[in-house]
Amino acid sequence: DAGVIQSPRHEVTEMGQEVTLRCKPISGHNSLFWYRQTMMRGLELLIYFNNNVPIDDSGMPEDRFSAKMPNASFSTLKIQPSEPRDSAVYFCASSFESNQPQHFGDGTRLSIL
Amino acid sequence: AQSVSQHNHHVILSEAASLELGCNYSYGGTVNLFWYVQYPGQHLQLLLKYFSGDPLVKGIKGFEAEFIKSKFSFNLRKPSVQWSDTAEYFCAVTSTGGGNKLTFGTGTQLKVEL
After folding, report:
1. Rounded CA gap, B32 and A97, in Å?
2. How sure is the predictor about A1, in pLDDT bands with cuts at 50, 70 and 90?
C-alpha cells in the first residue's frame, strides 16, 4: 500500500535556480496539500487542492511560488527564482476529503545556498 | 479566523511520567480534531482523531485525548511515557466555519529522558 510519494528527498541548489518538488498522492484521495516546515515558523500550509482544483493558496509566500495539479495522481510545487530563505522541509499530504485525516509524504529537504 | 493554540512548546519528562499536552482552538461550526506525531527526521503521522460521539478518544501507542466542547480543548494524554515517545506533537482542527481546511498548532516538542 503505497503512501504519499515525494521527490526528490533532498535538494541542494544555488540561489536563483528554479526548484521543482513533486508529489504523488495516495490513489483515491481527492485532496492534496503542500506544507512548509521550518524551525522558525513551524508547519505552514502553502496551498491545497480539491479534485485537482486549487482551493486555498493564501499560504503561498509570494509570486515566486507556484503549484499545479494537472491530474489526480501528480502535483508540483515550483520556486522560481529560489532564495536562501526558502530552505525548509516541504511536505505533501493527501486525504479523501479536505477535512479528513491527512497522510503525509516523507518530505523534501530543500537547501538553497 | 480559525486558530489552534498549543501552549507548551517544550516538555521534558522522565520515563513512566504522565503526559498531558494542551490544545485549544477557536472555530466557527462543527469541528474535527486531530493529533499528529512527528518522530525525529520523519513525516507526520496520525495519532488519533475525533469527529463525533464519545469525547474521550483512544489512539495508537497508548495515547488518548478528550474533547471538552465548553473549553474548546482537545488535550492529549498518556499515563506513562516511554523514551520512544520523544517527538514533536501537533494538534490540528478542521471546522465547517474554517472552510474544512486543516489548521495545525505550532507543535510541542516532547523529550523523554531515561
Report:
1. 12
2. low
